[in-house]
Write a structure and sequence with these properties.
478 residues; two-stranded antiparallel sheet; globular
């Protein structure tokens, strides 16, 4: 039993050229917008203030720069793989081609957790913002239908009611699942509109609040250290580890490689372009927020709204909520897109049951995996409060970064002569730096997160041993 059997990169490239089951409809702009859609969520509206107030002060700008640099290492490695092996499946497919089947299964199972739980937590957050926004315009969603089952909600008159399930979360998952079944081009077009709305809100804040900057609020730029991770350079670095999670999402672009018109050229543009655009926006927003409001006053759930109030833009509060709703909507879309494509790739390789490996005859989408993913995510987001899912999503993403960074080096050694449309620059520095920075951030996560990841992996290994090993198409070829 060869658990380290690998897929040939040449075979994968041939398959990418001949397999037309998925519709190649995405250009560089669509892919870049998918990346921005995945990255800009509540991170820019929440983490900016909390990290400035608690960890870095005005130097939160440097925290975003550090996190952006750490992310670009992984992005460069993803870009090489996505242009070299333009197949759905992202890090799962890359692991299959470089490290072997058992590692591919582990990272595929990990991505299932990452994207599914990511969509769950974002759907719950989306529900909260939508309920608040609708309340602003006079529409009241019954509390019993807007929170996790069993949650005790206190009403305005002081009485309490127990929630039945989170209806808005189910609705948004159903809408996006339907969109993903109908078509990748249609999904991308809707995502483009959503991204336009949320980027417009961010730019409106940047332009509208810039005049209210008081340079005195930036002094001292790096406050004197008060403890481990509290101000000083220690706080800047801790802040970098925290805001790194605001960048998570660009890796999901690579799951759409098999639906890109010209993946060799367009995938690197989409991955790196979206990351650079978001990094610039994060730096500008954090710089302006700390210039308008003294940093210690930003430890609130809505720091950008507070900064807008200080800048005389109180009317922007509802717009910021709208931007957050738009941001979360596109994150859900890209998470569900990525999860369904990973599922589809694993079933195509025989590691999961074949009934999910079906393409819709009209829409050319993996509709069975999209529907299964949507039902599972809607069920969990309707009934559960996922408090620590964010950490699980982060550790899953970081593990994927480690695998991809190592995989690029392995393939450079094993098959140096492969024609590479995009080559990771300074690969002997960039790839190890990507792997080590991701490992460092994984090590900073609490042990409870590791425990849950280990439990998830044990379940996955059992499934692989019972089903995947004997049904693997690569094994049957051998």
């Amino acid at each position: 039993m060869n658990l380290l059997r690998r897929k040939s990169v040449t075979d994968l490239q041939t398959e990418a050229l001949t397999d037309h089951s998925l519709r190649r409809a995405l250009g560089a702009l669509n892919l870049t917008m998918l990346g921005i859609g995945a990255i800009i969520g509540t991170g820019i509206f929440v983490l900016t203030g909390t990290v400035a107030a608690v960890n870095a002060g005005p130097a939160v700008v440097l925290s975003f720069v550090i996190a952006g640099v750490a992310s670009i290492f992984a992005a460069l490695c993803y870009s090489e793989f996505a242009s070299l092996v333009p197949m759905a499946g992202s890090a799962y497919t890359y692991g299959y081609a470089t490290l072997g089947e058992i590692f591919a299964w582990i990272i595929g199972w990990d991505l299932v957790l990452e994207y599914a739980l990511g969509a769950v937590t974002v759907a719950i957050g989306w529900s909260g913002y939508v309920v608040s926004f609708l309340k602003d315009i006079g529409i009241i969603v019954p509390p019993a239908l807007s929170a996790a089952r069993g949650t005790v909600v206190t009403l305005a008159d002081g009485s309490t009611i127990t929630a039945i399930f989170n209806l808005p979360a189910v609705i948004i998952i159903a809408i996006i699942t339907t969109l993903l079944v109908i078509g990748i081009k249609e999904s991308a077009n809707v995502n483009n509109v959503i991204v336009f709305v949320k980027v417009a809100v961010v730019l409106l804040f940047i332009i509208g609040a810039a005049h209210a900057i008081n340079p005195a609020n930036w002094h001292p730029f790096i406050p004197p250290q008060e403890g481990p991770g509290i101000y000083g350079w220690s706080g800047v670095m801790t802040g970098g580890a925290i805001v790194f999670f605001a960048y998570i999402g660009f890796d999901a672009v690579s799951t759409a490689a098999q639906e890109a018109k010209n993946p060799q050229k367009d995938m690197p543009i989409g991955i790196i372009g979206s990351l650079l655009i978001c990094t610039v926006l994060y730096i500008l927003v954090s710089g302006i927020a700390t210039g308008v409001v003294p940093y210690k006053e930003l430890n609130v759930p809505d720091p950008i709204a507070v900064a807008a109030d200080h800048a005389g833009m109180g009317w922007m509060s509802s717009l910021i909520k709208l931007g957050a709703i738009a941001g979360l909507s596109s994150v859900i879309l890209v998470m569900l897109l990525g999860q369904s494509r990973v599922f589809w790739s694993m079933s195509r390789d025989g590691l999961l049951p074949q009934f999910v490996n079906k393409i819709h005859p009209k829409f050319q989408t993996p509709y069975i995996t999209s529907i299964i993913t949507g039902i599972g995510v809607a069920f969990v987001s309707a009934l559960l409060t996922v408090r620590e899912a964010g950490s699980l999503v982060s550790i899953g993403t970081l593990l994927a970064f480690v695998i991809v960074s190592i995989g690029v080096l392995v393939l450079r050694i094993r098959e140096p002569g492969l024609p590479r449309a995009f080559k990771t620059p300074w690969v002997w520095f960039v790839a190890p730096a990507g792997a080590f920075s991701a490992l460092y951030l994984m090590a900073s996560l609490p042990w409870r997160t590791w425990e849950r990841l280990i439990i998830w992996f044990v379940v996955g290994i059992v499934i692989y041993a019972v089903y995947g090993v004997s049904h693997s198409k690569l094994a049957s070829k051998e």
